[in-house]
Model the fold of this input.
Amino acid sequence: MNNLRKLFDADFAHVPHVARPLTIEFEDWPRLEVLVRVHMDVTANARYVSCFVPHHPAPVPVFLVVLQQLNQFLNSADDANLPAGTGSPVHPAALAFTGRVYFYSEADDPGSEFDELQREARKKGISLILRGRAYAKEHAGPKAPADLARANEPAA
Done:
């Protein structure tokens, strides 16, 4: 399992979620399986979405398909049973959608195409966050034994 997928699985592990696979087929590209999660934070009274997109030559059209089905994903999470901190059940539909959508993408940085998608999404109250290879690299931790040795040396 690669680092980005591990981060996708770990980043919001403290928040209950409903996951749904989504198969996307484009005429000129191979079939793609993405995983969409609706996270439901009872403490914050909030819902938000994360999506793992394996490597694909054109990630922005994939992101667009997910965004076009966003309401379906949110509605599908309405059947989940979530315990509230007080012991009474909270209905997921009662949690406010924050508009935040995290895309974990193994593809190369989509650059200006993603910037344009962000601008268009913002007009609809959607805040897109791209977590790609750079994010995985930032959160990878020490890589070489020398780095580990230096981290364990006593301060001078």
In short: The longest strand covers residues 32-41. Helices lie at 3-11, 59-68, 70-76, 112-123, 133-138, 145-152. The chain has one domain: 3-152. The domain at 3-152 is CATH 3.40.1350 (Trna Endonuclease; Chain: A, domain 1).
